[in-house]
Amino acid sequence: MVPGRTWLMKEPTLQEWRCLQPILGALLEKSRDPSSTVRQMAVRGLGNLVIGAPEKLRKHKGAILTTLQRSLEDVASVEVVAESLLALAKVVTELKGKAVGSAFREITRVTETFFEAEQASLRSASFNLYGVLAASATSRWRSFFREELKNTWSILILHLRDPDPGASLVRAPGTYCRDISAIAACSAAAKSPCRAPPQK
């Protein structure tokens, strides 16, 4: 993301609702445009808009999340899907897990489907979003997320050796890494043969 664009979104004039409302409406509309390039730019704009004025757009989180989740199913364009993953990372960061609501579960599970995608851009963006989800998980979603980690920990560890630097260099929050390490250790212990205690 170009730093200047984020700065522009934080301009006081743009944060006034009378300016934001038509921009939001246009981006939501263009997310369905026949052109994949236009759809990609619209999705990127939604992510940047949330960063620029999170409080004013909070009441429209439903429409924004629905649009970005729908864009994850854009089979016609890998670029749109990757952009949607990146935009969701921005939205979840700003809204936090509690404000994301029940969409947290669906976003988490859809994100996992891209871990082994053929395209490096999808792998990188999905690992990035997963780390954001881990950091944003509230007490309501923490146990759910830990269960998801039990199913994906091996892929998450292997991604550190991803042939694409953009994917392999994605790093997760500390608590997320500790959970993965603990789960991996438990899994390894479960597969090891039990040894009888030494005879005295």
Automatic annotation (TrEMBL):
Organism: Nothoprocta perdicaria
Residue ranges constituting the Maestro/Maestro-like HEAT-repeats domain according to the UniProt record: 23-165
Protein name per Swiss-Prot or TrEMBL: Maestro/Maestro-like HEAT-repeats domain-containing protein
Gene3D superfamilies: Leucine-rich Repeat Variant
GO CC, alphabetical: cytoplasm
Pfam families with a match to the protein in the record: HEAT_MROH2B_C
